[in-house]
Amino acid sequence: CGLVMVALVALLWVSALASETKQQPATPLIVNQPLANQSLVNHGRRQFQLTSLQPNSCYEARISYLGYVPVAWQLSWQCTSSQQQRRLRDTAKLMFCCDANALPETSSCSVLEITGDYIADPVSGKEPRLLQFDLILEPTTLNLTHNTWLMIVALAIALAAALLLVVPIMQRLIDDAIRASAMDQRRRQD
């Protein structure tokens, strides 16, 4: 009876583990439509089917996560081992361009695979069951997203406006200082 119970518990544990690690179908990832509050089982992987890609266009796939949670994220293509990602403090991104068939040039498919491995915390030693992240796919021009270009243009306009306001004020202050100096010199001469 005890042996049957142990076998039953082992069978339930193996089936639970298998269902947890079973690959889910690829989640659609549409250009400019963020997927917020995504989760991934620790040491697991998820796949995202990139949709609405345009031929001969460039994109940036980016995951953002809590920077204080020590996780090693990996973005890669499902069908190749090509990994051209960049890591920042709380972001990992993969930049790519599409060919005339709207497929990534560095891959023969458009399925992005994300893996996450929690790096053990020496203080608590606890591992989270689920890793949280946000994912977005944005078009790029000259390796910058369109939102970045909007910020650059806004900054340039603000800088130009500041210069247009500051230069006349500074010129007036300089002219006033020169006049005051000239008047001061005349008083000394008189």
What tags apply to this protein structure?
single chain; 190 residues
Outline the structure in words:
By secondary structure, this protein is an alpha+beta fold. Helices cover 34% and strands 34% of the residues. The protein has two helices and ten strands. The protein has helices at residues 2-21, 146-189, and strands at residues 27-30, 35-41, 45-51, 58-64, 71-77, 85-87, 91-97, 111-118, 130-141, 144-145. Strands 2, 4, 6, 7, 9 and 10 form a six-stranded antiparallel sheet that branches. Strand 9 (130-141) and strand 10 form a beta hairpin. Residues 16-21 have low confidence and may be disordered.
Q: Find the count of extended strands (DSSP E, 2+ residues).
A: 10
Strand content: 25-35%
Helix content: 25-40%
The oligomerization state is single chain
Rg over alpha carbons: 29 Å
Indicate the overall shape. elongated
Overall pLDDT confidence: 78
List the helices and strands and how they pair.
Layout: H1 2-21, E1 27-30, E2 35-41, E3 45-51, E4 58-64, E5 71-77, E6 85-87, E7 91-97, E8 111-118, E9 130-141, E10 144-145, H2 146-189
Parallel strand pairs: 1-3
Antiparallel strand pairs: 2-9, 3-8, 4-7, 4-9, 5-8, 6-7, 9-10
